[in-house]
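Q: What structure does this chain adopt?
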Amino acid sequence: MNPESRIYVAGHRGLVGSALMRNLAAKGYANVLTRTHAELDLTDQARVEAFFAQEKPDYVFLAAAKVGGILANNEYPAEFIRDNLTIQTHIIHAAWKNDVQRLLFLGSSCIYPKLCPQPMKEEYLLTGPLEATNRPYALAKIAGVEMCWSYNRQYGTRYLAVMPTNLYGPGDNYHPENSHVIPALIRKFHEAKQNRSPTVSVWGTGTPKREFIYSEDMADACVYLMNLPDERFVPLLGSDAKRLPSPQSGEEREFMPPLVNIGVGFDLTIRELAEAVKQVTGYTGEIVFDASKPDGTPRKLMDVTRLHAMGWHAFTPMREGLARAYTDFLAR
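A:
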């Protein structure tokens, strides 16, 4: 990408999209295209195609999605699969029709099997059953990876999917019922401090392990990958011919999706996370874990070997990121 490139950020107001906007602005990209939902309904195919035909973006960051935590995924599975399939299908197809040079599709680590070998490598995609609580969302994102792969194979496009680990940071969703774990904990501990509550209840046993990356780091990785020279970018775009061992049988299999994990390479337990958020928010009461609530996937640690081989590493320490996220929550 160069400073004059026309860059479309789909979903520019969300956690991912807003981080991308800040990163692009800091790097001097001034020709960035955005549309609010009121201006462009991405579930409306005709309007999406008209937008692409008129604006002719050179590069696309596909960050628009319907997202939420365990509760929201359980309550609205139809919306999660329908809306995500519709949005990504319209954008990917319109990008091809209008000769977009590169597209970056943002997915989620939940695309990997529930009991995936750890850390999770890109080639472990489609090797086992998914976590039931977010299966509709995960299947939509898997379809997005396959769609990028299929367009690359059939039309010679250059569409890459990236799978960030769990995100947190400025612009997060702090809704009490449909937020992810870090913003949910930030709100819980803050309100408990304000109300002088003696305890804070946290879902599950506290034993599952999770990896988290600060949203500003994630955005930097995305822009870094989109700027790779062709000789390094093109080999990432997927192959059915590269022979890889199956994680289950050890037998060789032909499978490498156009996929790069984005993460930090280490994880912590939900109990450790809750303690860290408690300290950052200044709450002094006790944490109670509600084992009657679901834990979700036991562990989700990304293998970031492929990303590191491209020359990028995360740079924001967890405690510093949490403090910044809490400052953002207080400001909002």
